[in-house]
Amino acid sequence: MKIGIQTWGSEGDVRPLLALAAGLRAAGHEVTLVVTHVTNRDYAALGASFGVPVRSAGRLAPDLVKHAAEFLVRRTDILRQVDLILRDLFEPVEQDMLREAKRLCRENDLVIGHFLVHPLRTAAERVGKPCVSVFLAQLIPSADIPPPGVHHLGRMMNTLLWRVGGFAMNRMFLPRINSMRRGEGLLPFKSVMQDAFLSPSLNLVASSPSLFPAPPDWDASIRQCGSFHLPVQAGQQRLPETLERFVAAGPPPVHMTIGSMSVADPSLDATTLLFTEAARQAGCRAIIQTEHIPSIAPDNIMFIRDVEHDLLFPRCAAVVHHGGAGTSHAASRAGRPSIVIEHVTDQAYWGGVLHRAGIAPQMLHRRTATAGKLARAITAVLGSTAMRERARTIGERMRQENGVARAIELIEQHWS
Known about the structure:
Elements: E1 2-9, H1 11-26, E2 30-37, H2 44-49, E3 54-56, H3 62-74, H4 78-90, H5 94-107, E4 110-114, H6 118-127, E5 131-135, H7 155-183, H8 192-197, E6 202-205, E7 222-224, H9 241-248, E8 254-256, H10 268-282, E9 286-289, E10 301-304, H11 309-312, E11 318-321, H12 325-333, E12 338-342, H13 346-356, E13 364-365, H14 371-382, H15 385-398, H16 403-414
Parallel strand pairs: 1-2, 1-4, 2-3, 4-5, 5-6, 6-7, 8-9, 8-11, 9-10, 11-12, 12-13
Helix pairs in contact: 1-16, 3-4, 5-6, 10-14
């Protein structure tokens, strides 16, 4: 089968869809991936290493991205954050995405898209092409799940809050989405969540049931698979030599990263100082991931720019991160506790999921995080035998899951 896949966003939105593309390619399908990355990263070489051709759709001005991201971190209202993201980081490239979506629909038998990529839904509907939606978190209304950033208040309140959130999203986003649909000769949608995000055919939820099982009130078109993660390739089975020496030289370190949120950080130096001081106060060894490598590092700290999480995380005592879906799953799959410093949108959701699973303390917030607060959280995690054992148990279960294989099985069954 010829399959086209389209995604938009940061690293955490691209790699899972690339993992699905690589799995479908290995299963014998012909796959093309279209990527719109918010910092214009090129995935052609990485895709080619898995036999997947990758095309880019649209480019965002770096100054616009940085300005929007810095403003985002200062906002506390999740709906306003999403509004900013779509206005400043999605709308400027949505016509480029629509053009590539039409091309995917012409070239392929089936198309699969990140749930936010409504241009693909529009292009697929226009020509009658089947379209699958992929969700990277359980951001689908349910009486058993509260909306992101909201505490669980019972089934009745969860239902009410989803309706209120849906009403607000319709006011903000439906005019934008329906403007594109009218331009393509299609009837307007009535609901963002039900019409624009959810596919009428098949919806794949790429999150682990070991962290959060699917609620019973989802309909049959919504299927939880497990996380989608890229396998470590041949030639990447070892840590870089200097990093290996540091890890082996003492007790397991704490890994610290804000991942894709580095673009939203007004001062990477400030975050590096925050992490460095927290490690000093906690008295732990640390590996700090940053774009700005200091010229001098304390003996107990190593600074790095990038590393394969699946190689490093199992060698660490805990992981401090921003609460992205990919990093949350990687730390949990490695059997390691997390300390979450959420920045925007669904990161608060993952901070809550990990805390309720018993493998993370109460999350911190980037606007109010201090070295002292972070140090106390690290000390509590490193001193908690129960949290370490819980993380180890969940990690063992997650390593038995294969979200990509399950997704491929569902896709092939659906269109057999």
